[in-house]
Amino acid sequence: MIEELLDEDLILIVDNVEDKFKLIEMMVDKTLSKGLIMTREPILDKIREREELESTGVVEGIAIPHARTEAVKDLLLGVAIVKEGLDFQSLDGKPVYIVFLIVAPEEAKKKYINVLARISRMCRQEEFRAALKEASSPSEVLEIIRKFDV
Amino acid sequence: MERILLYIVSGEARASWDRAIELSQSLPATLFALFIVDKQTVERVAKLKGSDEVDIAIEIEEEGWKYLYHLEEKSVESGVKTALFLKEGNSIEVIRNFVKDREIDLLIVGYKRGGGIRGRKYERMIEQLIEYIPCPVLVEKEGGK
Question: Are A78 and A100 in contact (CB under 8 A)?
């Protein structure tokens, strides 16, 4: 199911990035250049607003920034791997290496919960996290997700 | 008091949600919302239904995200800094470690009187929380005085 929402153009692999908002911008830009959204500002505003107040934790090293906004028509998913880790200002203060970005309209609530549940299930597996951290290309990331999202 | 943990057991315990949000807003404190896919519950339900444990765990986990989703909506609307967590394991053990690791100041949990084995199990869980969790525990009575 997760792989149906993703393709290589929505996956970002970087060594490092200055801060979490810059990374989120880069991820949103991927959806913009793919034509999945018309404008990025309302989406970025919503994510920033949420990130100020809320964070989602499954296991250490993973962040799942998410927002609900009518600025998107359907659920959007993006993945980023930050090789050197990133201070995501998470409540445990630990660096984040894997980021799943979820943006969805209110009416996609069921899908949103399902995607969140699937991502958290995969992320709890150490093997999955280790494989993603080592991935060197978007196609490899996609392959790993395909293997673990059962 | 800076860190409040709300242990979400089910969607019925809304009085405890409201209390946690209200307290976090007025103090102010960061609200940690935790749902646990309890291994024993998974095993028990799978046995009762004759289903696969993995399927039951998935079912419970999705239910958990649904509660966390609703809690998040309410708390963020109130301007409360909120962190959502879903973990697997033995509930008491998971909560105890969570409280220690994140230096939680107060644990809030809902309580609704229920009959039968389920009700007694729940009461036992509350007793264990009070006994084993290394921070004050606020048990919020659900559904009236």
Answer: yes
